[in-house]
Design goal:
InterPro entries: Solute-binding_3/MltF_N (IPR001638). It is globular and about 55 Å long. It is an alpha/beta fold and about 270 residues long. The protein is built from eleven helices and 13 strands. It folds into two domains: about 25-125 and about 225-260, 3-Layer(aba) Sandwich (D-Maltodextrin-Binding Protein, domain 2); about 125-220, Periplasmic binding protein-like II (D-Maltodextrin-Binding Protein, domain 2), CATH 3.40.190. The strands form three sheets. A five-stranded mixed sheet has the order 5-1-6-13-7. The chain has a five-stranded mixed sheet with strand order 10-9-11-8-12, sandwiched between helices.
Amino acid sequence: MKKWLKKVFVGLSLSLLALAPVQAEAISVEEIQDKGEVVLATSADFPPYEWVKMIDGKEQIIGSDIELAQAIADKLGVELKIVNTSFDSLITQVTTGKVDMVIAGMNHTEERAKQADFSDVYYLGVNQFIATKEVAEQVKAVEDLADMRLGVQQTSLQEQVLLGELPDATIKLIPDNGDLVQSLLTNRLDAVLFDSVVAEQFARQNADRLQVIEDVAIEYEEGAGMSVLVPKDSPEFIALINEVIAELAAEDQYNQWIEEYIQQID
């Protein structure tokens, strides 16, 4: 009986190990160049940074983050392949080696830094709420939102900002930005926190119902901002990405891309 139980326990342990996610190995520039492509994971529901748009009858993922990814691919001399997935699965995509990098408005946190390497910050803005026009008229300061039903994208930088600013508020975490907007339109939420550029676009797309709460803006803490993620312990790849970011910053190119893609939002 004891031998049988031991065999069952060992078998179960091996099965669990097989099911456990595998930590991706570090990736080098040479390895990416040898395979001829760099694989990007993003969550394309974040205009003007990344979203899906119908162009010439075909769905395409476009935006300023995609331009950044293409600039990295060009620096590597390889093709860019894009994987569109939910925001809350992006870390897993890179830690399990399914993709080479993540660009999706992702910010540095201590927990994420244990799992992946981060580039320098390539963009830093501010955060603003959108709400129905009726609710927006009631809000003159962030404290006015404390007793409202608030929403934010799960695992996003805005989640951290909102939990830090209004820790006792009723906050609903939703992975998809489109679902957050729909929750506002169907009166399941009172206000949603987005990056200010994204907030403006969602408000413009629903101008008959929604607006940005202009009197309330929450800035990021020092050191926060959008970065590129790659597999842990990939210093050569990070160095190349940081070089691209620096070159773009010198020409203010990323901000120009934002303005360009704002004009393409339907």
